[in-house]
Amino acid sequence: MTDDDGKRRWKGPAAGGGGERQLTTRVKNKKAKESSKKWIERHLNDPYVARARAEGYRARAAYKLIELDDKFHLLKRGLRVIDLGAAPGGWAQVAVKRGCKLVGVDLLPIEPLAGAIFFEMDILAPQTPGVLLAALGGPPDLVLSDMAANTTGHTKTDQIRTGALAEAAADFALEHLPIGGAFVTKAFQGGLEGGLLTRLKQGFTTVRHAKPPASRAESSEVYVVAQGRKPPL
């Protein structure tokens, strides 16, 4: 699954090393749609893209989790983490580097990563939760979701489709997190649908919205961080 942040499979370091300084690149393909050309230019000139290549991350989205963790202290050594919509593996890299045991799932294949286990499955399939929990060796301490539906270009439709994925991730978290567990999910526009946000506030001690610096200013995405899973009612 992809989002407007351009999560794509990383092919390796750029030639010539990993300095932050870069020249502006312009796309000259006249046949490309103007919107596509602008996206490509923005992606090629994005300092987070250059930094990800230099530091070995598979996607610039890795810095969103780094910044969220620095603010909310989500990742701790020995924590058990489930990553929903894990491709291409940038968030998994961050969690593993910070000492977590991680199991990830996505409809897309994910290149292997030492310290993580990945499954190519549909998170909505009834057998998926059991497979993930068995591979993790128990319930997760943290559920992460950076899922976003493939965009259609129609803002309201895209918001609804991504909201449905956030709801599926929240359902998983509310069902499987133990007391004290935490949940992070992507949302758009004003955040999650009101009913779902209410459920999270009932199920967690704190629920906060955050837009990490790595999230592009023009993007409508935000993240919902729910911490301190309460005992189920």
Number of domains: 1
The SSE order reads HHHEHEEHEHEHEE
What's the CATH H-level superfamily name?
Vaccinia Virus protein VP39
* Total number of beta strands: 7
- Under CATH, the topology can be stated as Rossmann fold
Structural class: alpha/beta
For this structure, what is the CATH class? Alpha Beta
Unreliably modeled segments: 6-32
Helical proportion, percent range: 25-40%
Oligomer category:
single chain
The main sheet comes to:
7 strands, mixed
Q: First CA to last CA: what distance?
A: 33 Å
Major beta sheet, strand line-up:
3-2-1-4-5-7-6
Mean pLDDT over all positions: 82
Count of DSSP-assigned helices: 7
Our estimate of the beta-strand percent is 15-25%
What is the CATH-assigned architecture?
Answer: 3-Layer(aba) Sandwich
Report the principal-axis shape: globular
What value does the Rg take, in angstroms? 18 Å
